[in-house]
Amino acid sequence: MSVFIVDGFDMLSLGLVIDDDSSGWRDAPEVEHVFAPVPGRYGAARLQRRGNRRVRRLIVNATMVADTVATLRANTSELRRRLMAAVDDTVELRFEESTKYYTALVEACDVTPIAPAFKQKAHRVRISFVCPDPLAYDVDETTADFTAGPADLELGDGPSWADVTVNGPLAGPWQLIYRNA
After folding, report:
1. What would the pLDDT profile of 125-135 be if each residue is shown by its tens digit?
2. Are 79 and 11 in contact (CB under 8 A)?
3. In degrees rounded to 5, what are phi and psi of residue 73?
4. What is the pLDDT of residues 6-27, one digit of tens each?
5. How many CB atoms lie within 10 A of CB 126?
6. Sign of torsion, CA 6 11 13 14?
């Protein structure tokens, strides 16, 4: 992973080397369907037409490496300070693609010294975030001008839920069609 930014601060500058088993940001949002048993029948009935998107959990596993034990301790303190200062507020997270971000809450930050603890210049770090809104958002807004007719909006290659705002006067009937290319 080449990017790990929390609220505009590059966490890799603290000596974090992110492991490949970090997870959550590459996955599509999980969906939960609500079912209830029907007496006298096999199976269950679906209670909602649409499923509920589950919260997203983002797990960052890393090794924090420093040149000296003092630098390692200072970086560990800075990591904890930055994450724990944001415990009650949502933070903006960016990962591999710095053009996309998630809004998340800090769930836990575990720092485990690697033995021998007082001589080693590395710690194991596990940071978990929970995203009440499981969707990733684009950093830049896209604006389209419909004065000359239809306009295409590039939404990327993943599942998209566009937030469309129409500004200005509307004359006559108009149509907004949202579909895959």
Report:
1. 999 999 888 88
2. yes
3. -65, -40
4. 888 888 889 888 888 788 777 7
5. 15
6. positive
